[in-house]
Structures are given as C-alpha cells and as structure tokens.
Amino acid sequence: MESTTQAGSFWLPPQASTSAAEVDALFDFILDLNYIFFAIIALITVGFIVKYRKSEDNPIATSDLDHSTLWEGAWAFIPLLICIYVFAWGFKVFMHSTVSPDNAMEINVTAQKWSWNFKYDDGQSTSDLYVPAGEPVKLIMKSRDVLHSFFIPDFRVKSDVVPGRYTTVWFEAKQPGMHQIYCTEYCGRQHSGMHRKIHVLSKEDYAKKKSAGFEGRPEGQDPAEWGKQLYSKYGCNACHGLEEGEVKVGPSFYGIYGRKGETQDGTAYVANEEYIRESIMEPMAKIVKGYAPAMPSFKGQIGDDQMDAIIAFMKTLK
Questions:
Q1: What is the CATH number of the domain that holds 233?
Q2: Is the peptide bond before 114 cis (omega within 30 degrees of 0)?
Q3: How many of the other CB atoms lie within 10 Å of CB of 169?
Q4: Does residue 14 form part of some domain?
Q5: Which domain holds residue 128?
Q6: pTM for this structure?
Q7: What's the CA gap between 311 and 224, in Å, rounded?
Q8: Which of 150, 178, 212 is the C-terminal boundary of a domain?
Q9: In this structure, what DSSP letter does residue 166 have?
Q10: Cβ-count burial of 304 within 10 angstroms (0-12 exposed, 13-18 middle, 19+ buried)?
Q11: Is 222 helix (H, G, I), strand (E, B) or coil?
C-alpha cells in the first residue's frame, strides 16, 4: 500500500482528505493575522518608546495630545470587519465538515477503554478502520464507558465520542494510504495506547478486501503469531500482562491455558477454549476472584478465526 505523498506545512500534517485544504487555509489566515497585528503593535510600541522617552529636553516624557476619534474608530471598526469575515469563513468550513453528503457510506464506531471498534454495513467489525478512496464516509460514533475523542490529523477530523449519545463526522480520503487514528481525550491509564490505523484503499481493493474479510489472517502467518498481534490490536495488553505474576487490571495471561481457579461466587473453573471464549465475549459471566468486573464485552467484534488465533497465542504462554 502506498502512503499519501501530499506534503503538509511546517505546522500541519499532510492534507489527505478533501476538506483538509480549506481547514488549513482558514488556520493559516488566522495565524497570519496574528503575525501582522503582532508586528503592528510591536512597531508602534517601539516607536512610542523612542519618541516619548525621557530625556534632558523632555524630562516629563508625556504628551498633552487629546484622543483621535478617527484612529480609535479605525482601530475598532477594521478588526470588527476582520472578525466578521473570519466568522463567516469559519462557519462555512464548519458546516462543510459537519454535514455529510447524502450518499456517504456509514460506518458505526464504538469507543471503549482502550480500543476502537468499527462496524460495517455487512456486519463485519474491525479494530482498524478501512475505507475506499474518493468516496465520502460518515462515522456514527458512541462510547461504552467514558468520554473519548476521535481524531485523524491527516484528515482534519476530530470529534468527542460521548457516552449516552451519538456524534458524527465525515470525510473523503483523496488517495490510497495509511493514516493514524488517536484518542485525544484523557480516558484512563492506557489512554496513550488507544491509537489505531485507517487504511484507505482504492475502490477495487476495498471491495476485494471487504469480500474476503478486512482482518483475516495474513497468508502464511502462524495463527499464534497472528493472535499475538490481535492481543495488542484489541487492547488486551492494557489490562493483561504476559509475564508470570504480572498484575494489571486483570490477571496475567502467562500460563492461562489450563489454569484452574475460582470465581467471585466460589465456582471453580478451568481455563480451556470455551472458558477463554466466554471470558472475551461475556466477561461478566465468570469474574475471577480478587479482580473487579472491569472488562468490556468483545461480542460482535472478534470473529471465529480471530478467536482461534488468540487462543492459539495463549497456549504458547507457558
């Protein structure tokens, strides 16, 4: 896959969406205004310091001049016109970046500590986002727990993801490439690890990838190795370590397969394939004694092949 080649500016990343250029233009205009007014105020300040400095000829260093209505009016009226212009421009950019086209492809996004889930119209769910280039995409977002914030810097797309309500953003990627997705609202201990990729594919490659399954096991890759990748991709590493005796939010995965233990209600269990699957899909069913019920459900997010790979990976941890 080729990455985007459009260069960004000194301040900003590459412009990889159709709306990025107008956002950057507004940003640059406001920044240039700051430069200009800073220079004007600085030059006038230096000029006054020089002209009205205290000296032997002017020991008081003050002026008896009255105010100038013309200058005061100009100083108030001209910035007012600029502010109105910036507001109108900003409102136009805001509306364009907020109101999605009627023909936009819809993808449902679920945020939770500390992962993203993307669900497509055919029922597939992925932890990375896959979209076609040259086609508008609307994201319908919700949170399962706390406040998150969805951000794709290269697309100039950013929106809070709020518990109990839906928020939306849309974009149209210009060309195939790979870009970064971040959570930019502090959401807990593993907030900094809540980042994923967005894969922009050509329309033909997107159709093929979707038909074959977006996140199927790469050809020739060992299932356990793929399971290790899924362990990180789905955020399991945020709560479960891989070292013996390592304690995080949940128990360590070291030696987990075949482990015997006890749940909070005193029921004995053996960590076989069925137990591992149930713990991922229905984590509240059997809560290990000594741990809080903090794990979210991954039901509808992890397919059978992915589950088999995760279990295969866990079998190697001994």
A1: 1.10.760.10
A2: yes
A3: 21
A4: no
A5: 105-212
A6: 0.67
A7: 8
A8: 212
A9: -
A10: exposed
A11: coil
